[in-house]
User: Fold this.
Amino acid sequence: MKTAIVTGGGTGIGLATCRRFLTSGYRVIAAGLERDDDLPAGIEFLETNVTDPRDIDRMIGAADRIDALIHCAGIQLQEREWQVEDFRKVLDVNLTACHASATAALDKLTAARGNVVNIASMWSFFGSPKSPGYAASKNGIVALTRSMATAWAPRGIRANAVAPGWVLTRMAMAARSDPVREPRITERIPMARWAEAHEVANVIHFLASDEASYVTGVVLPVDGGYSIG
Ligand SMILES: NC(=O)c1ccc[n+]([C@@H]2O[C@H](COP(=O)([O-])OP(=O)(O)OC[C@H]3O[C@@H](n4cnc5c(N)ncnc54)[C@H](O)[C@@H]3O)[C@@H](O)[C@H]2O)c1
Ligand SMILES: O=C(O)C(=O)C[C@H](O)[C@H](O)CO
Assistant:
């Protein structure tokens, strides 16, 4: 049975991604720190800290085969990221853990001719005065995804990323519920609305599917035009 592992799969975009792969008949492993109460029964939740190498080994060991590995785990600590310890924490979860889980999965990905989808961001293209670690990690995801794509193409592995804009999950809730920021943000989005998590999940699923069999190394914005508006 085709298998997808989704880090950060218990909430938000990760959970929507798990639901999407479940619909396609995959075995789905959601590996993360937290899970929503309404996690569908078909999704296997594995408590996992992606910064802990033993947890990464356990996560990869839980799958007989890996057809899709999606790195959705992410944190943002805002201005605290100007402190080096918090900068490191953000890089560790958002970027280094992406490298760690994909390299640990390499043999299983190769055997299944599987693929990797990483989660970039609008902050992959912009700097962020308020969140320097987050922006650095998401800029880094672009380079890491392209490196994976070029290094692993001979193994039959594709590696791509999505770059979501403003998505209605708890990560963006502080901005969403700020009466000053929210209208300014929405006004800047050409499509004039925020994304639902499933709209990002659909694109992740597309990139991981055979429909995208000749696509590798791309960073696909899913942002209602925010990055080009
Ligand atoms: N919401 C947005 O507007 C938006 C926009 C662009 C990109 N993103 C990215 O999408 C991804 C998912 O975020 P979300 O919006 O669904 O928010 P979210 O907070 O619901 O999801 C983040 C997930 O990461 C998990 N996580 C955090 N630290 C972890 C660790 N050490 N080990 C394992 N899991 C860990 C959390 O438990 C949570 O399930 C993140 O990479 C985020 O940067 C979000
Ligand atoms: O990565 C993004 O594009 C985000 O929207 C993440 C956060 O929600 C945003 O930076 C909140 O300030």
